[in-house]
């Protein structure tokens, strides 16, 4: 069920979404959804109409609206955000030197926090492998005792938990890649708007 594409189950409004959003976990894991676009690009030069629709979360307009709202809080509202960025010398002293960084972090704080837990889990399971291996080697070098069977079963269960945890937390890496794409889109659109409005 999870491998199948979800397009058949959507309403008419959501059917315009791209295959990346609607593909199953297997297709996303091996980027199978991208094959049609690669073949199309091999056969002809791609145009904008050939590309898949952009994820709404990566839309420059929605990102800029969110950022502009946060940027304009607490400053003189006659200075709009692209003009402030374009004319940094004009407003020196009225804005912080690292204001872009802080406002970006404040505006997109939940997007920044989202990949933290999956990454911590992945690091914990990865770091527990050598510790578990050390315990296993120590177990093999000990003389058999009364509770040897229980320790052996415990090590088997521990290995199962670690490798199951790695298998579950590894596919969450696209969340981190999505965060990188998200910030590239935001900062690039901010820079383009700044250049377009600079004198």
Distinctive features:
199 residues, mainly alpha, 2 domains, 62% helix, extended
How would you portray this structure in words?
The protein is 62% helix and 0% strand. It contains 10 helices and no strands. It has helices at residues 19-22, 25-29, 35-43, 60-71, 81-86, 99-107, 109-113, 116-141, 148-169, 173-197. The longest helix has 26 residues, at 116-141. The radius of gyration is 25 Å and the shape is extended.
Largest sheet: none
Quaternary organization: single chain
Structural class assignment: mainly alpha
Mean pLDDT: 75
Question: How are the SSEs placed, and which strands pair?
Answer:
Layout: H1 19-22, H2 25-29, H3 35-43, H4 60-71, H5 81-86, H6 99-107, H7 109-113, H8 116-141, H9 148-169, H10 173-197
What does this entry show, briefly?
The protein has 199 residues and is mainly α. It is built from 10 helices and no strands.
